[in-house]
Amino acid sequence: MPRPLLITVIGKSARDPRDPVPPHVVAAAEDVGRLIAAAGAVVVSGGLSGVMEAVSRGAKNAGGLVVGILPGFDKRDANDYVDIAITTGMGWMRNTLNVRAGDAVIMISGGVGTLNELTAAYEDKPTVVLEGTGGWSDRIRDIAYGGVHLDEAGHATLHFARSPEEAVRLALRLARGDVPSDSPDRPSD
Predict the structure, then answer these.
(1) How many helices (H) and strands (E) does the chain have?
(2) Residue 67, burial from CB neighbour count under 10 angstroms (0-12, 13-18, 19+)
(3) Domain spanning 6-175: which CATH class is it, in words?
């Protein structure tokens, strides 16, 4: 029996009540979680609030499995939809574990913590950015080299999606090693 794909979802937290996650971002994250679970893949996230909670809720409502990689030592910090809470005691340094655990990464919105996760994933994990969700997801293309690279050498390529369906479809393909035909990573014929 093959092991299921793990898709890490990174995004804006809701830890600052003065900076809430907008409803359309919550809805997009729930859709992403639901679609990952419907495809038989496992959702991995930081296990806390905001996008992490919304993607977890979407996956659980679709009967999926949710793993939360927590920054602290207390499993009770995980949102209510996390099935497997992994404590690290590493604070923000757990971001690297979070993205390295997945076979692919989907970025939804996000602040500086999400940007940190994106750079940790960049060279080693295929990453899909869900545009239209605000934060770094809507800014990264404008500052990336050629709109798709975080480094001048182009060691890896960011992939962009405009809908939860497209983001999950693309992440699953990339996790399986199937580079899309329109990707700059695919060699020309």
Answers:
(1) 6, 7
(2) buried
(3) alpha beta
